[in-house]
Amino acid sequence: MDRTAWGEVFRRGKELYTRNARPGERVYGEELVREGDEEYRHWDPWRSKLAALLLKAPPEPWFTTIRSLLYLGGAHGTTVSHLSDALPEASLYVVEKSPVSFAPLLALCRRRANLYPLLADAQLPERYRADVGEVDLLYQDVAQRTQAQIFAENAEACLAAGGRGILMLKVRSVTQRRPAPSIVAEARRTLEKRGWKVRATVDLSPFARDHVAMIVAG
Length: 218
Ligand SMILES: C[S@@+](CC[C@H](N)C(=O)[O-])C[C@H]1O[C@@H](n2cnc3c(N)ncnc32)[C@H](O)[C@@H]1O
Fold this sequence. Notes:
CATH superfamily: Vaccinia Virus protein VP39
CATH topology: Rossmann fold
Largest sheet: 7 strands, mixed
Number of helices: 7
Number of domains: 1
Structural class: alpha/beta
Oligomer: single chain
Strand order of the largest sheet: 8-7-6-9-10-12-11
Shape: globular
Bound molecules: S-adenosylmethionine
Order of helices and strands: EEEEEHEHEHEHEHEHHEE
Number of strands: 12
Radius of gyration: 17 Å
């Protein structure tokens, strides 16, 4: 395994792995690989947009300095589990509004000390901002029509000065009728009008079709 610059994330050839914080445990049926005393979990870019982003456009060194993170749209915890491995010293607050998805997410969070689950609607950050406080990274993957607004409201509520954001924009959740570049440009305008700068946009194809990662800063 070759260590990367992104916390406990490793590469072997073209594949990504995280050092398993819970050796012997799989989260979603992923491959486990043993090397020496360590165990690594394969991080599948076809199932996790963050893995796709790391493979397509690795972030700058700020990724490793993250001490706290707000994750919107945790679902069953596929990507959350790899972030939990990658940033073992960080506190990860995970918002999910579907009770069906929240049940397996809660079970995952009970096994990992750096995860704090919140059954909540990301459209209402005022309901959880006191629990979360200020975070270094806001990560959003909610597939809603108003994704950019939701992101801006959460950034205003919880992002620390100098913090970063990653908005996984699902283009087709905004509208089916307009071409993707116009939807991405509109999301950029929404963020910029509210004072957020879009540092980069990364098309996640072929791993996630119709998805663009937007790297945002204050
Ligand atoms: C595409 S899935 C997320 C996948 C996950 N990020 C991963 O990579 O493992 C989107 C999730 O966002 C949740 N979601 C949608 N709207 C939401 C909202 N307003 N607040 C919180 N969660 C929301 C959905 O219930 C769903 O579980």
